[in-house]
């Protein structure tokens, strides 16, 4: 429960920072108007007066950052963390008549090891050490506020070749732009199957609230996910808590850098101790080369005994617009 209180406090701080940024001030010499288009394509018109003090908005960002660290430090996780799709979700959904195709490539340089004399680990799964995981994610936009995603998980290691791991389906909805919420909010649910050789729990379900906000060049996102196993040793654990979070900064219009966090905390109200938790920190880079492309690279470190200790990840995504809007736009421009 402490973690949920801290997550709510984080959202409150984000709202406070947004309120500070939107606060109206009068100029002695007169009033000017300034129109800015936010990253979420929402338009807002506000009076412009002397700029707010940098220390005020910077202080809010720092407070949010340290609250993130506090959330990470007080909790503790559960079963093997999935290293197939390592990504912190933003609140935006894929537009209708648009398909997002992504390839998640993750190499575990230092992970779990097999029991001596066996090909499997102590929990009866293939070890993650030196495993290459490739995940194909296909997301189709349904409406302006909903989408559905489909995952195909694969794994390859020396001596085993490429193997199919499992599939998941993930519908997601978000708060529409017309509601004018000060933060982005969406809700994702994911259900799927993974083979017993790769996960002790073969059928699992997840519900993931998503809250994010762009504050100037700073970006904040938190994904406090809740997971449930329907077949496997974790069924008796009930609902488990697995939070993810991201903080990044836009160094240029093309390059953003930041820190991503992934955790798995065990049963609600009965988290494991620090030694048995699984937490990973990924310094990462996003390349914003085009609205049609999503490019992310990161190197993750797992500081606890139960975590994979070193992972290199990459995400390459491409949006395909089937609505014909761009073709019509191009024909107009050429006339």
Model description:
- The chain has helices spanning 2-22, 54-74, 325-334; strands spanning 32-37, 43-48, 98-110, 132-143, 146-157, 161-174, 184-194, 203-215, 218-231, 239-250, 255-264, 278-287, 293-301, 310-321.
- It is α+β, with helices and mostly antiparallel strands and 335 residues long.
- The chain folds into two domains: 2-74, no CATH class; 98-321, monomeric porin ompg (Porin).
- The protein is globular.
- Mean pLDDT is 81; it is low at 1-7, 20-59, 68-81 and 327-335.
Question: Which tags fit this structure?
Answer:
about 325 residues, alpha+beta, Porin, 12-stranded antiparallel barrel, two-stranded antiparallel sheet, 3 helices, about 15% helix, disordered N terminus, disordered C terminus
Low-confidence stretches: 1-7, 20-59, 68-81, 327-335
Helix content bin: 10-25%
**What order do the SSEs take from the amino end to the carboxyl end, as H and E?**
HEEHEEEEEEEEEEEEH
Any idea how many domains? 2
* Strand adjacency order, main sheet: 3-4-5-6-7-8-9-10-11-12-13-14
> What's the total number of strands?
14
CATH class of the largest domain: Mainly Beta
What is the distance, rounded to the nearest whole angstrom, between the alpha carbons of the first and last residues?
61 Å
Secondary structural class? alpha+beta
Tell me about the largest β-sheet: 12 strands, antiparallel, barrel
Q: What value does the Rg take, in angstroms?
A: 22 Å
CATH homologous superfamily placement of the largest domain: monomeric porin ompg
In the CATH hierarchy, the architecture of the largest domain is: Beta Barrel
What number is the mean pLDDT? Answer: 81
Helix count from the secondary structure assignment: 3
Content of β-strand: over 45%
* Shape call: globular
- What is the fold named in CATH at topology level of the largest domain? Porin
